Structures are given as C-alpha cells and as structure tokens.
Sequence to fold (466 residues):
Amino acid sequence: MPKKSPADQPAAAFQFTQSRFQDLVAETLQQAKALGAGDAVAEVSEAYGLSVSVRNRELENVERNRDKSLGVTVYLGNHRGHASTSDFSSNAIADTVRAAYDIARFTAEDPLAGLPDAQDVVTEIKDLDLFHPWTIDAGEAAQVALSCEAAALKTSRQITNSEGASVSAQHAHFYAGHMREGLTGQPGIFQGGYASTRHSMGVSVIAGKGDAMQRDAWYTSMRDATELASASAIGRYAAQRTLARVGARKIKTTQCPVLFEAPLASGLLGSFVHAISGGALYRKTTFLLDSLGQSVFPKHVDIFEDPFIPKGKGSSPFDDEGVAVRARHVVKGGVVEGYFLGSYSARKLGMRTTGHAGGSHNLIMRSRRTQPSDNLDAMLKKLGRGLFVTDLMGDGVNGVTGDYSRGASGFWVENGEIQFPVQEITIAGNLRDMFKGIQAIGADAYNQGAKTVGSVLINRMKIAGA
Fold:
C-alpha cells in the first residue's frame, strides 16, 4: 500500500487531507486552462494551533487558530495575475481563478515573470520528518506554562515580577501544483506538498524594582514537542539570565573586541544572507554586490547549508516554487560560493535559481579553528578584555552601506572573566569590516530558526557609552 501523508493520519486534526488538496489543485488548474491560461500555479494550505499564556500564576490568554487558503497565479504570456480565497467551494474557486485571469489581462508585461525553468523543478520529494503533532489541550498547556513561570519565580527572591510564560503548538500542511502550457503531469511540472509542525515554550521575568529593574527571557522551539527543553529548565535559565543583569551600568566610550552570544550571532549571519539574496542583488541595494567568488570572511570561516536535516527548522524538500534544493557551501574558506536566488531574481541577474524562493534553509556557520573545548568560558578567555553582548535593541543595520549601529547590553570582561553587567550602550561598525574581523566562533552552537552558529568574536568595534 502507498504511504499515507502525515496530514491523512488520525493524529492530525486537519479538516482536509492531502488527497483532497490534490483534487482542489487539479480543479483550480483546470479552471485556469478553461479560461485560456498558458501557465498557472495553484496552492492550497491549512493550519491550526493553540497558544496559551499565563502571567503571575494566572491564566492570561487562550487562542486557537484555524486558517485555510487557496491561491492561484495565472500567466498570460508574460502577464501575471494572482488571487486567493478561503472558500473551497467550486463557485468560489471559479471566481478566484477568474479574478486572477482578469488581473493578468491588465497588468504590465514582465518578460522575466513565469514558472521556474523545467530543468530546475524537483524530481524527488524527500520525507524530512517535519510533522509531529502535539495533542496538548488548553488546560495542559496552561499547566506547562505555569510550571515554567513558577520555576523562574522561585529561583530567587530577587525575581520580583513576571512578564508571562507561553506555550504554543502549531500544525500546517499544503499542496501545490503547476500547469505548464496547458499540460499537467509532464516532466518539469511540479506537484507536491507536506505537513509540518512548530512547537514552543518560553518565559520572561523581572528582577529588582524601579530604575534598577532588569528583565530577560528564554525559550525553546522544536518540530517535535518531546524535544523541547523542560519547563523547569527554561524557567530557571530565564531567571538566571535576568539576575545576572542586576546592577548593570554604563561604560565609557571606547573601542574594543566584542563577543556576540550565540543566539545573537545568528543575526549577523542573517544580515549576510540578506546581503547576498536576489532582491538586494538585482536592485543593487547591498554592500556585498558582485561578491560571488570574493573573500568576505577570514579564511577560517565556512558557511554550509543543508535543507535535508531531519526535523530541521529550516528543512524543506523543495523551495516555494517547487524548485529542487541541495546541500552546498555558501562560504568556503571565507569566499562566497553561492547566492540565495529564486527564479525571478536569478533571471534578473542572468543566473540560474539556487532554490531559495522563500529564503534560506538550515545554515551552519563554523570556524576551522574551533576546538570542541571552545565553550563560552573559553570564548571569554579569547575575548580577554572587551564586551560580551547578550542583548541587542533597535534595527540599526543599513543593508546598502553595511553600517551597523545597535543598542546593546551585556557584560564587561577583563582577563577573560566577567566583571560586571553593562547597559545603555551602542555598538557600531560596518558589516564588511565585522565579517572580516571574525577571530573565532565558539563550539557553543545555538540553533535560531534556520541558522546555527556559536558565539562570535569580532576583533574591534566602537562602543558608545557614558
């Protein structure tokens, strides 16, 4: 017997099965064909979930979400039209296809618009184990959140208040299909979909009172709820982070090495991804224009991308266009080996899609110098004297020039040892110099969404303080 989709399993509380989605996609494409469309794309999706929050030992909010959508994109030559609906009835589908068709008739011609090239369409859809339903109900979720908050509150009498704890269980599935020149089921025609889950838990607490108040938080997020960190561990760690900030003060304006805590270092990686992504490249709004084959990082830095990690938060068997994805080096020995391109941006650049319509997949940033013993303590020793940053504020990153300026807090370090917490400062530099100035990457790797990187030590940045 053929293997059932996870969306067809009894544990999934979806209203529609993948087989029903296939029928809806086929019906939508048939409607587009009947109107005279040459190419078309149809996608059907459904999601449901539960989110529960508590605050100061009391239930604060319970939210249930259930959404569904059918979208269709119609191409009339190089004219494109898109429309969507949440009504899956035949009449609604017909009206939606007609709306997309009419939009295409009157939009400006774009010679680069269209389906991905046939040779780029995925031919094998891998099962990446992305669907793990969590059958938790509102009462159970509230108890988990309450125990997480309780663990934080009882860590110390210095924890004076709570900004709340939350638990979320989210489930989704979709199916998409292409019609190319009026044909379906032919080579180069995409048909496929899958189900996925994302579950999380977190808490934020406050220490001290008045002007001396400090706050911090921690959370855990996984595809599989059984792999979430325990509620007590999350609560205690959030409290410990908050307590460590008590007594924070400013420092004098200076220049010094800066160590970014691992969860923040993923933001540096995110800035790099944006800078070498299609939209920024073809619009020429990036400081890393024409960086392919160029040295952007030191020779000891590599960035690897793997879309096929089982249960990975950035895993996918294909991109948002149905294009095949692949494992690859994005940066090797400090040199940029590949961009992040969808079909449209690739055509604008005279290149070929890299399978990144919808964004990057699982990125892993490493240093060839990193040793297994390079934990956070070891990274502080490498820092020596400087700033250890644990929190960033604001969005002071200019993607065109690379200029970087963010409010920050963290700890001042002398002789590799934390001396005191620091707040109300600004760190500044230029991303081009910051990337080149990476001296070390820790073995304390942390996964933030689709990015994994350890703490990152940068040789020098400007610190604006008192």
Remarks:
- The two ends are 71 Å apart (CA to CA).
- Residues 254-464 form one domain.
- The chain has a mean pLDDT of 93.
- The chain has two domains: 6-244, 254-464.
